[in-house]
Specification:
Keywords: Methyltransferase, S-adenosyl-L-methionine, Transferase. GO terms for molecular function: methyltransferase activity. Belongs to the class I-like SAM-binding methyltransferase superfamily. NNMT/PNMT/TEMT family. By secondary structure, the protein is mainly beta. The chain has one domain. Helices cover about 15% and strands about 45% of the residues. It is built from one helix and five strands. A three-stranded antiparallel beta sheet has the order 1-5-4, covered by helices on one side. The protein is elongated. About 5% of the residues are buried.
Length: about 80
Amino acid sequence: MAELVGPGGHIILCGLTGNLGYVLGQKTFKCFCYPQDLVVHALREAGFANKGWIEVPHEELGSKDSLFDSAFVTWWVKL
C-alpha cells in the first residue's frame, strides 16, 4: 500500500481496536486484534508521518457490540 502513495501524499485509515470479530447475520467471524502501536510502527517504517489519531470507545458510539474496544480514524503523510 505504501508504494501506491507518493511523497507528500496522504493516507487515511479507519478501524477498530481490540477487535475480536464481527457479526454478519447470525454468524460471528473472528478477526486479528491489532494494537495501536502496531499500526503506528508499520506506517512509520513505511515512511509515513502521523498527522492525527482520533479514537472513540464503543460505548460512546452507542454500540452494544462488545467485540471491539474503540473505533479510530488516523491520517498520515508520506515523507
